[in-house]
């Protein structure tokens, strides 16, 4: 055997031993666990935060075009979280800044990781897998602060209406602003009663029937200057009514 060949074999052997030691050290001393695909948790469609007591929490995170559900998770410092991630429509990614959580969110599958939040502050959650036109808008956050319990933020002085909560919960706000600022979709400010110019000519008045159609069949008509990128989702009649009622208030 050539001297250089022998040298290369020894070097790669040493390198493998170093990797093995590093792996064992990370797993036992640094308590870093490898993200896993779990098979004993059924895929879920709703986000949930479950308080298991003693500072332990279980978070079910659902990724969908183009939002995370729950969009915001509020926990106390020291919270130890078992994070389960699934997706509704296409494959998304989930990265939590300042942590080593970096998972794929796959429809029909559940991926899991354990993470501990010691430092107070905000941790952005971003989607790192290209998932369509709104990919760059897809974000959520963990807020770690004393006194948080995993329960959704207490109602602010002026509580958001059920319609606004639904609008945010469904992720509509990822693309449709409420204040007139531009987005992937038209702003909802003053939408009710507006005369809408359509792609390919023609106009529609944004009355109740139009708004309902635009929610149920987003791509039946496209507003001029926008792309047909809004995902069609199943909505109950109640939800559609609540959303339309909310949109009518945005004058
Ligand atoms: Cu979801 Cu990119």
> Sheet with the most strands?
6 strands, mixed
List low-confidence stretches: none
Order of helices and strands: HEEEEEEEEEEEHEEHH
Return the average pLDDT rounded to an integer. 87
Query: Number of helical runs?
Result: 4
Helix content: 10-25%
C-alpha Rg, in Å?
A: 23 Å
Percentage of β-strand residues: 25-35%
> How would you describe the shape?
elongated
How far apart the termini lie comes to: 83 Å
Give the topology.
Elements lengths: L2 H26 L7 E3 L9 E6 L2 E9 L2 E3 L2 E4 L3 E9 L4 E5 L5 E4 L4 E8 L3 E6 L12 E6 L17 H8 L25 E3 L5 E3 L2 H9 L20 H12 L3
Parallel strand pairs: 3-6, 5-11
Antiparallel strand pairs: 1-9, 2-3, 3-4, 6-9, 7-8, 7-10, 10-11, 12-13
Bound molecules: dinuclear copper ion (CUA).
